[in-house]
Design a protein that fits this description.
The chain is mostly beta strands. The chain is built from twelve helices and 59 strands. Helix 3 packs parallel to helix 4 (424-436). The protein is globular and about 100 Å long.
Length: 993
Amino acid sequence: MKDLGPNAYVEDRSPGTGRLRPRAAFASDLPAIVLDGDWRFRLASGLDDLTGDFAAPDFDDTAWDLLAVPSCWQMTGLPGEPRYGAPAYTNILYPFPVDPPRVPPQNPTGEYRRGFDVPDGFPASAAVLRFEGVDSAFAVWLNGIRLGDGKGSRLTTEFDVSAVLRPGRNVLAVRVHQWSSGSYLEDQDMWWLSGIFRSVSVAARGVEDFFVHTAYDHTTGQGTLAVDVTAPTPVSLSVPELGISAADPAGPHVIDGIEPWSDERPRLYTGELVSEAGERIPLRIGFRTVAVVDGVLTANGKPISLRGVNRHEWHPLAGRTLAVDTMVSDVLLMKQHNINAVRTSHYPPDHRFLDLCDEHGLWVFCEGDLETHGFEPGGWRRNPSDDPAWREAYLDRAARLVERDKNHPSVIVWSLGNESGTGANLAAAAEWIRQRDDSRLIHYEGDFASCAYVDLYSRMYIGVDELAAVGRRQEAPTADPADDAHRRALPAVLCEYGHAMGTGPGGLSEYQQVIEAHPRLAGGFIWEWIDHGIARLTGQADTGQEAPDSFYSYGGDFGEEVHDGNFVADGLLFPDRTPSPGLAEYKKVIEPVRIHIDPATRQIGVHNLHHVRDSGYLDFRWSVEDGGEPTGSGGLTVTATAPGATTTVEWPADLTTALDAARKNDSGHEVWLTVTAVLAADETWAVAGHEIAWAQGLVVAPAASPVPFTPAPASAHDDCIALGPARFDARSGVLTRLGDLELDGPRLDIWRAPIDNDLLNAFGEPQSGAWFAAGLHRMRHDVLGVEPDAAGLTVTARLAAAGSSSGLGVVYRWTACATPDAGQARLRLEAVVTPYGPWPVPLPRLGVAMSLPGTDAEVEWFGPGPGEAYRDSRAAARVGRYRSTVSAMQIPQVRPQENGNRHQVRRARITAPGGTLLITGDPVIDLTVRPWSTEALAAAAHQHDLVPDGRLHLHLDHAHHGLGSTACGPGPSAPNVLAAVTTAFALEFGTGR
């Protein structure tokens, strides 16, 4: 290895030198000096460009820039141009040659300086300097004295400054390297960012550390409390609620009548440690016991099911530097969407996030700062996980994970890391954790073929059939019989599934059904919480008058040599933390209370999926809509339903009256009963009235009686054909006008702007490859015949691609009512599509496309809504009458793609400047309306590339191919694959005011 002299620590495998032993993160009333704020900063290009005497207290840094700490230096200047280097994204590949522990000589290095004053009376002789997060390696000087160096970017590092800190003026100097040997352990599918990105402080040091041990015995209701304290002076414990006052912390204290901590009831007892020296440390104590019982994950004696998400720390302007308000927003959004668990992928989060999980109730898989995925393309050769030279680094990261976060009741599982292959270092880390803390379980997915040193059988991105086999304990055996027996005795968890990239994910309901059918399956974590888009601005318009457009960038937008594109945008939240349709779907799928409506028996069932909480915290309400119009509503009395139990209630009298009135009204429309469950009182995470669960039942279905229809004849007039109020082009058979409304189309259409799940496949060939090879994106619509007759118009056409012997024949049969209602035109289309030639691929969509003038319009529809829905992602859509605009119906995916479909629409009204178009399905259609074409949508790389073209593009589809989660997971299940088979569908058009 090359001689780096005093900078040898950069490539040394050691986790650091001069550091204090890791300890818990805790508050204290001892004084502290927070060093966050503006620091002097210079970015050196590498080790040969360092400032030799920058650590000297009298070094003149006035010419240096000012940089905020905490921050990631590549994010400085955004949303404009980054000032210091640029972000880079890879999922798996290292952005440098894989030659551990060596890193490139072109190693950007940030040199930081901060002067600060220590006030009189500050206990400088007993103080520590604390860095909560520095990426990736750093060395520290205080007043010109080198304190040491460290690695482990998302782990706390402390240095003893008692011999160096002095009253009055002090100067802190820090050198941070973008790349180090530690970078090989931090390949965590995220933007590569650098700098002092979490807080820095100098804190007086009294109590060294403490470990709050609690347990809860569900058979007796007793709690046990013991606190191990390391301190230079005696320390006492007080927990007034429990009758503990100035007691020996070690106890053990056995208390009757404890309320245990859980995600559903996050009961915290307020306590305090007080040292003989006068230091006071507040405690929030939660009693809970986590165990595996008969192969089932339990907490406090009850089986639990994880309705979780994977959460990276992300902000579109600040990167991995998060304010507390952002963390609060995340936790509240999770709770409001029925999420009860979070995996801190793939590193420990800011410790304040765990405080919020304790407070509001989220189970936490707290994960180590470890991933070596970039070794997989090379067959895991030289992977640090099985190299003894890296053992110290692995053990160090495990210890710093556990020690910092050991006092959080929300943390129920220690996760060794992610996608780091297999090896003795992982086993050693697990053994260290088990010896230090046997009250929690150990997780690691990467060694699922063995599971020898973990407590959970963890998998990622498997399909529902394999998941069901795991639930039955019928998975394929391991190579070692002992390991096999051990693994089959473990609960199973999906540490990642439902990859939420782009439009989707599809199939979440299928996963949840399997999870709930098998007690062994402890649930899972959606990948992932938020899109990691970086906020950018386009260049100013040529006139200089227009404000630039904003958009979100992804891999490749900063000129990276290697990158993984928009694979970094795969969350349930958009980068600005707006919930995506995928989050709405997930909330519905994982409802903790299931409501079932049975119109035949006039009963409503409530099944409580909670593990400790009865349904008494909810108010139940009903409403009735006739054709989307409200006709009645009221409250529903439901006896508090115990966890795991079901309560059935009869329809109340006022509901019966409302439904009888709707039947008597005989409007000819669908009558729907909706029952909702909302919070009866405020919770810490939502206000009273917040909806938790809902269900619908169709209580009156209109009779399928055909409306009398006297067909009008079609007649040819020069270059057009007249059919009632419609006009068609005589040569192409295309509808050009309906009444006073100009139209173009409809034509058979099977192409959609590929979604990410079409374009990508982490485990095979992407679906889009077969589509492109078959020419589905360049199909030609050739008219073969236009035949008017006395009862309508028949247009025969073919949809096929150049060079292909396969295609789709289509017959359009148009009819019009000879005596339309006053002021309304009525036109009916019946289409029969017949494939010919070999069709080895599914269709992206099947329907017709048309356009009309306009850039925006009001859209009203009756059917599922209000948001988008597709055939395998439709649980969150409830039937009703909705109103929106074309612009509001567009879903702002970071990379534009097919979006915004309204599923199974019965009827719709589109009111544009040129008139109103009425559309009726027979019985239903899928509806999409856009201000740009499919071709423009497919060609766009970012949202600002989409510009309205002056026409409104309508897609009226019989069906769509499912969404699946193929980008990283399984494709659509068999029932959701759109096969090319002979298909007939019909719809009607009209005009109105």
